Amino acid sequence: MRPVRPLATALAEEPLVLDGGLSNQLRAQGCDLSDALWSARLLVEGPQQIEAAHAAYVRAGAQVLITSSYQATYEGFARRGIARAEASGLLARSVDLARRAGDAVDREVWVAASVGPYGAMLADGSEYRGRYGLSVADLERFHRPRIETLAAAAPDVLALETVPDEDEARALLAAAEGCGVPVWLSYSVEADGERTRAGQPLAEAFAVAAGNDQVVAVGVNCCEPAAVDHAIAVAAAVTGKPVVVYPNSGERWDATARAWRGDATFDPSRVTAWRAAGARLVGGCCRVGPEAIARL
Question: pTM for this one?
Fold first, then answer.
């Protein structure tokens, strides 16, 4: 394992480039992701494909790799007959695969362990709505075991990502408290960049991270590129923390046809304005591949 600076230290010194969408790169490698576990299935059946996808982003210049644990949960694995002990090993494997890809190059590469929202486990699109009918305490109980396992695998940061509402953000931050690993908090937002997917004003949503020293960055992901501009300004103003942004390509998912629609609007030249507004971690999410990250 190659030593790297603490992420907070690095962010104070320079902006960093994130990777892009893991699922689109896995599909480009010929992987079938038509499964409720999505990319997490390959932690069981094709870990070499996950490492290869991470390596593609490292070659493109990514400095931060997000692990394949977004949809990896104890509950999801249990539905596939995977016992808890094995599931813990698979979660740890997600960190190890990203670490190995980063260690293959002679420069600093940080590993962000992905902690997706509760709705990702349901695999029904509810991560883009939030408000699952669960209390903050219920959500904290769901997230805590996975966070503890991922933290024990020693990533550089936990990516609490694609969070659809403020309640789940509170639960995630509570579950991560005391785990010994810094976190970033990233919301999924509406197209105007002014509200969470659950409809809360972003200023209120980001306020849950203000004053929390464990949070090294706040921002947005899995949203339209145009939504980022407003979100950066709000995140920086409310929290005073570095901002993380990694939007989708701009295409939209048609759940009925199970296909992407529209044109890609992800433009790496936006990075100049994003950096000026406070973004220190910039990358891509769904449908943003290594070529776009190289340009970024």
Answer: 0.96
